[in-house]
Amino acid sequence: ILQTAGPCPSCWGATFDLESQRELLLDLAKKSILNKLHLSQRPTLSRPVSRAALKTALQRLRGPRWETLLEHDPTQEYEVISFAETGLSSINRTRLDFHFSNRTAGGREVRQARLVFFVHLPSNATQTVNMQVLVPRPRGTNLTSPSQHRLQVEGSGWHQLLLGPEAQAACGRGHLTLELIPESQAAHSSVILGGFSHRPFVAARVSAGGQHRVRRHR
Amino acid sequence: GIDCQGGSRMCCRREFFVDFREIGWHDWIIQPEGYAMNFCTGQCPLHVAGMPGLSASFHTAVLNLLKANAAAGTTGGGSCCVPTARRPLSLLYYDRDSNIVKTDIPDMVVEACGCS
């Protein structure tokens, strides 16, 4: 409990010097953790376990299959999700931009990329709607025609599309642009929602040991 | 919420990382290696005060009216720079009996601050 002249405890920041503030915060952090773990003081370890032994034990807990996997395939996979920024769009096409951090782009291998988006069809639209997804080629490459994917949308809701190697490579470079083009008249009256709860996104499955794996295969 | 920058005196979130090695707790806390505690600091003038997380609405108008009445009747107003969003901290640690325990402690990491 802080006795301060200020109107509330959070105003004390200005009244303490940095070192006292730091000590106070560390003390507060310690007390908070111990309190939430229902401990009166930090546990004292009578028989400390080495980190190596702990790692082995955790691996064994996950079963022999996991252990074999770790031994034979040291690559680690994880998923990165990037939400779309909508660029220049018209009634005939919606442009979506996805940015991936340098950590994702830094030489790691993107093994799969999935586009997930929400389409709202007018209530009277019963027929299926064809949607074309373009992945424009990066500038400076010899090939100028974009990579295309086609998708049938049969009703309002979330839809997903597995993107090809061009899109995966773009994710790996840190920036992916997609253009969604409705192909029929009914599709033109459909809306690709981009609000807070319906924002399109790309989920990229990334392999942390990508470079190593590529070298090995070569 | 606003993150503190430079000599800002208004209510903001200041980043603060607790390194478990630095405080000598790395022997019993296995993971993570530290904890981004963060905290709220700064002043809350009456005109900034609002219900954290409340968007402009009828309720905001009512609150503003109440604040105006409070300002007329009292001094200070009692507005405070407080956490408006927090998230849990996951810990893997040894307990008193050297068992390995994994737990999620709620409301530990301050994500955003605002004036109450």
Summarize this structure as a short list of keywords or feature phrases.
heterodimer; A: alpha+beta; 5-stranded antiparallel sheet; 10 strands; 30% strand; disordered C terminus; B: mainly beta; 3-stranded antiparallel sheet; 7 strands
Outline the structure in words.
The complex is a heterodimer of chains A (218) and B (116). By secondary structure, chain A is of the alpha+beta class. Helix content of chain A is 29%, strand content 30%. Chain A contains seven helices and ten strands. In chain A, strands 1, 4, 7, 9 and 10 form a five-stranded antiparallel sheet that branches. Chain A is elongated and about 75 Å long. By secondary structure, chain B is mainly beta. Chain B is elongated and about 55 Å long. The two termini of chain B are 12 Å apart. The model of chain B is unreliable at 52-58 and 72-76 (pLDDT under 50). The interface between A and B is medium-sized, with 26 and 36 residues.
Query: How far apart lie the N and C ends of chain B?
Result: 12 Å
**Helix content range of chain B:** 10-25%
* Biggest sheet statistics of chain B: 3 strands, antiparallel
Oligomer: heterodimer
Q: Count interface residues per chain for the largest interface.
A: A-B, 26 and 36 residues
H and E string of chain B: EEEEEHEE
Low-pLDDT segments of chain B? 52-58, 72-76
Shape of chain A: elongated
Order of helices and strands of chain A: HHHEEEHEEEEHEHEEH
Overall geometry of chain B:
elongated
Q: Largest sheet of chain A at a glance?
A: 5 strands, antiparallel
**SS content category of chain A:** alpha+beta
Number of strands of chain B: 7
User: Taking Cα atoms only, what radius of gyration of chain A do you get, to the nearest Å?
Assistant: 26 Å
Q: Give the strand line-up of the largest sheet of chain B.
A: 3-6-7
**Classification by helices and strands of chain B:** mainly beta
